[in-house]
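Justification of computing resources. Each target in the renewal requires a structure prediction run like the one illustrated here; the chain below, 181 residues long, is used simply to show the kind of job we budget for.
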Amino acid sequence: MRPCIGLILAGGRSRRMGEDKARLPLAHGNLLAWQVARLAACCDRIVVSGDYPEHVAVPDVLPGLGPLAGLHAAALRFPKAALWVLPVDMPGLRPERLQALRQQAAPAFYGDSPLPAWFPDTDVLVAAITTMLAAAPRELSIRQLHARLQSRALPALPANEQANLNTPEDWAAFSRASATP
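Resulting structure tokens:
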């Protein structure tokens, strides 16, 4: 069985949020710690795409490619593994949804949201990304990666679970909803 690597994508600039999303306070820590804890019990190892010294980081090999760079770097670092990818800014996703991804034999994601995602073979993932980068015009999106891999689209997530927290308004709405019993 391939080792399962949990990858938290936290390398973005958080321009729309105005501050580092990964450092936003949540529960007894921050958003990044929350997401790491969600995958920790289910993976052999957790790594972070981004500059967070308190976590094992995977620096981009090809900077400037957004989330694709994070996937590429993790897949290169962990050959012959499975990669479970979770964006740092998607804390509403229920744990059973993450488990449903991991149960897939092929790459998988939810409906119209390319992340979170499951990639059961990092060697196939590296080959697909390498091919995408060589294409003219270059294909640089996670959606294009899923198309190339013929990933399985599971039913779409409810809006509250797939919401990315990109702005202070998004964060405020999530915080209010989380505080409601």
